[in-house]
Design goal:
This protein is an alpha/beta fold and about 350 residues long. It is about 45% helix and about 15% strand. It is built from 15 helices and twelve strands.
Length: about 350
């Protein structure tokens, strides 16, 4: 196992760099290439537009999940508290950052406190899938779930990020077998997500065949973790290599569309550079079940719970206005709208 102080320092570095440096992908999220046909006569009042939705049998007041970001350090725990309080207030879902450091350090009470803050919303535990090749097993997965009384487990995939870290763990061999085992033995749904470079249709179909319940495409268009790692390292060789991957990945809009084409029933989370409620509306029209927001909420969470709530409210209002102007009364109607597409 890696030195815990190194893991915690890396997590704090990630927070600091994400907040202070320009680490955006050179790719856009792809949503600007899609548009709604304007509905000049919606035949309804804006107040009639509803955005509640069901995700994994949980009723959400808005089709939003706070994407996994951080945890395992004092600053990360403070951010998660603010996010959890906001999620509970607005009755939306939340994923937490990797629990690897928490499990390895034995800081188990922190997770229990998080569930006390957010007793009634879907909370999702999180571990790096590659950890299954570095000492973690079904036992650690169960522990991650138990720590926050989670409603599911996120296994995140980040091969490129690991390859760009001097201390990166790059053995992704035979992970499919281990993911399949986790899916069969864990008593909560397993979500697989990328960290910002996207999941293709073929990989998504393969994961669902292993027993994965939800795909979070986590596409390109938001934070580029190759840029984050570029700023974190002092190794000139890795800095040069990392800079070459700024425009790597599958833009989120295309990842959602392509995955939905091959998987008609599986819940899909659209995350990766979603900026506002209009992007969220487009994601749902393209096939997403809910949308994940990270960067905007991370900055807000360093300020206060109230600031996080303000942003969630703004995204929700933007979504409702978009639906009103497109003639959709609810999320089901929104999901049936065909978007216009323009070539680059």
């Amino acid at each position: 196992m890696a030195d815990l102080s190194d893991i915690q320092k890396r997590k704090n570095d990630h927070i600091d760099i994400t907040l202070k440096k320009d680490v955006r992908s050179a790719l856009d999220n792809g949503f600007d290439l899609f548009s709604f046909q304007h509905c000049a006569l919606p035949e309804m009042d804006l107040t009639e537009v509803t955005i509640n939705n069901v995700f994994l049998n949980y009723q959400l007041n808005a089709p939003i999940i706070i994407s996994s970001m951080t945890g395992g350090t004092a600053e990360g725990d403070r951010i998660n508290r603010n996010l959890a309080e906001a999620a509970q207030e607005k009755q939306i879902a939340m994923g937490i950052g990797s629990q690897r450091a928490q499990i390895e350090s034995g800081r188990r009470t922190k997770g229990t406190q998080l569930r006390k803050i957010a007793p009634t919303i879907p909370l999702f535990a999180n571990l790096g899938a590659v950890q299954l090749n570095y000492g973690f097993s079904i036992e650690e997965c169960k522990e991650a779930v138990d720590l926050i009384e989670a409603n599911g487990l996120i296994l995140h995939l980040n091969p490129l990020q690991e390859a760009l870290q001097r201390e990166g763990q790059t053995n992704f061999k035979e992970l499919s077998v281990k993911i399949e085992q986790i899916c069969s033995e864990l008593n909560v749904p397993v979500i697989v997500k990328e960290v910002g470079w996207g999941i293709s249709a073929s990989i998504a179909r393969h994961l669902v065949n292993l027993g994965v319940s939800v795909i979070d495409v986590a596409g390109a268009g938001g934070t580029s973790w190759s840029e984050v790692e570029k700023f974190r390292t002092s190794d000139e060789r890795l800095i040069e290599i990392s800079s070459k991957f700024k425009d790597w990945g599958i833009p989120t809009a295309f990842a959602v569309r392509d995955v939905r084409t091959v998987l008609t029933d599986i819940p899909i989370i659209a995350s990766g550079g979603l900026r506002n409620g209009l992007d969220l509306a487009k994601a749902i029209a393209l096939g997403a079940t809910i949308g994940g927001f990270a960067g905007r909420l991370l900055k807000a969470a360093t300020q206060s719970t109230d600031r996080v709530i303000e942003i969630i409210d703004q995204i929700s209002l933007e979504l409702r206005i978009t639906m009103f102007a497109a003639g959709a009364r609810n999320i089901k109607e929104l999901s049936k709208i065909t978007l216009n597409f323009r070539e680059r």
